[in-house]
Amino acid sequence: MSHWSLLTWKRDRRSLRRAMPTLAVLATLLTTSAGVAAGAAGAVERDVLGSGGLTQVELSSFEGDASVRSLTASALRDAGKVPGVRRVVGDYSSVLYAEESGTYDLTSHTLTPSDDLPVSAGAIPAELGPKEVVLPAHAQGTDFSSLLGRTVAFGYTQASGTTDVVQLKIVALYDPSWQADGPGVAYLSEDTAAFLAAVRAGLETEAFREKEGAQSAVVVVEHQRQVAAVTRALQDDGFSASAVSDRVRNLPGLFGVADLAMRVGVLVLAGGALMLGAVRAGDSARARLGQLAVLRILGSGRPELRRILLGEAVLSGGLAGLAGVVAGTGLSVALAGPLSDALGLRITVADALPGPAWAAAALLLPAVGLAAGTLLGSREVLRRDPYLTARAHG
């Protein structure tokens, strides 16, 4: 960049610095989207896939859909016979409520291998026992911290509408902000969860498992390389099966939008910078025809004038990209807390930083696009006869 570029960029309000606000906004949007998507992906990789999700397949049951195989006891046994499958755990849902003190009403689920709870107190055993339960640290106004390690009476409802009591030991508490199955969930062993669901439906446990089945199930595969084959075999057998790694990487809602926006944003930023460069450069050169004509008469050639305009473009695009990266990174870091609540996983500041490639794209594309657009937009103006132009602008 020449001294003249810096001089005209600073002093002439008709210079290409007018393109900076628009490019800075585009770079900010790209960087923010990259940070949001990176934060969600980082949290998923660390808290879900890192805890065994790479070797898991999820089975779903859709009520009323005859094309999808129900997750009955016999169906889950068939799933367990697929080569490469090590274990199948069905998820059964019911409700536990306060029997002695408190006013809580907790949804209960099976603690499956895909549930990587952020334990805040106590410890979850390798396999939860039939008389054990894991609760949120607090829920619905009740603090369970004082009950950790104690056996507590929980109420549950039977099909007749009457109530009964089950004694469960609270072995661990987890951070209640983790809400993969919703707020205030009690996690039980598969047998206990199935028992409560069966009692609520008025059936014996085995009859319930065979007739109603689980609402979902997690299949644990022996090795990551077998997941694709196991998933295909389960799908061929009528199950709605999907690899957990595929499901969590296809980020839902806002995170899916951010991932799409990040990819589209590169094209929009590049195209926007190119178009803006062409339009702004043409306008800027036409607005300064007299000034450029005088420079040519004094001995400056078209290449030198073009270098002045390119210097303005690089300076404007570079500063716009830098401002966008700084603003977008700050915004994505500020959103880490709220987005952690939305995803149900902890997004750290390091997670929320956009990847180097995306940050570089946001930093460089405005300058590159604006420079390319400047070459296109200034060609026609710089071809004009400088003497006729100077005389016209007298």
UniProtKB/TrEMBL annotation:
It comes from the Bacteria. InterPro entries: ABC3_permease_C (IPR003838). It is a multi-pass membrane protein. GO terms for cellular component: plasma membrane. Keywords: Cell membrane, Membrane, Signal, Transmembrane, Transmembrane helix. The keyword Transmembrane helix applies. It is found in: Cell membrane. Residues 272-375 form the ABC3 transporter permease C-terminal domain. Pfam families: FtsX. Its main location: membrane. Residues 1-37 form the signal peptide. The chain crosses the membrane at residues 260-279, 313-337, 357-377. The keyword Nucleus does not apply. This is ABC transporter. It comes from Streptomyces chromofuscus.
